[in-house]
Design goal:
D-Maltodextrin-Binding Protein, domain 2, Arc Repressor Mutant, subunit A, 319 residues, globular, single chain, 11 strands
Amino acid sequence: MKTTQESIFSSKTLTYFLQLAETMNYTQAAQILGITQPALTQQIKKLERTVGAPLFYSVGKKLRLSDAGYTMLNATHSIYNVLNKATDEIQQTTSATQGSINIGILASIEDHVFEDFAIKYYEANPNVQISFHMLTRKEIWERLENNRIDLAVMYLPDESIKNWKPYQSKKIIQDELLFITSDPKQAKKKRIKFKDTISEPWVMYPENYYLDQVIKESYKNQLADLPTAVARFTTPQQIYRFVAATGTNTALPNSFMVANPANDDLNTVSFEPAIKFDLNFVFRKDKDQIPRIKNFLDEFDNYLRTEDYISRLQKINQN
């Protein structure tokens, strides 16, 4: 017969509970987990019977965590933290030149420099398997929390992240959002005020993407109306192609424009004031002490020390 602990901490129980706590929607959680809604409901009820209290309650159509649910959520996060720490400590005794490294890259980032580095890193470290995953911000944080990726390449600051305690970051470069337009009147400008960028429709990132939120916050801070979006795409390449074909406006990172310079019909202008943010490696604390992760980060530092990030992007464009 299973003990209470075995019933609570079975292989799938905590995963089901965490996913429901994340989405607060049985249908959505079941779809993500790849099970039926009745099966998920049955597992949650079984967990509630085991702990002796309801973990969720409904207010109208909205699901909420009960006090017991919050206690279980905190306990579950603590369990994962202990397991992740144990995994990291074990891996710190492993080789620097063997094993695997999983890297999550924000989908809106120009990734050519990382691809080029991966080729050179493989040539020097053929026994280390590097896997790149192009992810949304939400997917990156979920995988960091569950220890499914070792490093994340993403933009900071990110106000949506409330708990930074388990993580640390390593700056790669400072980047800047640039206004992209086909309006010939803007061609000679070095800077443009926010209120002067909204006369034509925009192409933007999906709502809740990091750069979409940066744009909204910047316009709000300047007391300017938001641009009208006529299309939204997940990658800068898609946005750029749409703008070039339709004569609409957008804003794209300088790092992307260096690697993909505007054609004769498009003009690139800095905002006034400038919209700046940092490109960073983000990882769990002490993850950089694992030999193969430390070696990877050290080699990346040497790679940029030989030739800086922007210069490498310019060289990629020339090739």
